[in-house]
Amino acid sequence: MYKRILVPLEHSAYDEAILDHVRTLATYCKAALILIHVADGWAARNIHHLDLRESEEIQGDRAYLEGIAASLERDGFETDAILASGDPVREIVAAATREGCDLIAMSTHGHRFFSDLFYGSVAESLRHRCTIPILLVRGSKTGKTMEHRIVS
Questions:
Q1: Is pTM beyond 0.70 here?
Q2: CA distance 38 to 91
Q3: What pLDDT digit, counting tens, does each position of 40-55 carry?
Q4: CB 93 within 8 A of CB 99
């Protein structure tokens, strides 16, 4: 069914919901997991243009991502990890294409009305820019799964 699943992580408790879900899905499909975190702060967006050193935040993001990847590998999953910087939607779409992914699986926060109204959400923007299916698992601040749906 799915061979390569891209899993965008945001370095928060919301990640637990999607990680629990993709462990089961990847086991069932015998799929590889490609983790991606997109650092999108000022330093992250300008690190290459201004030849900056990695900030403490980026270093923390890298350690978090590598820790999750190592945990999945210890559990027998084929796993790659990508730390990107810049616009999250653009970087996730580019990684999905470059890595040959056939599913994007991510957690969502649900609606945050004003924030979504003015800025949109990563999930909503991905839905309009991707040609592969997207699995959305609604997480919570405690990391528990609330609901899930597949959009294409």
A1: yes
A2: 7
A3: 765 555 454 445 555 6
A4: no
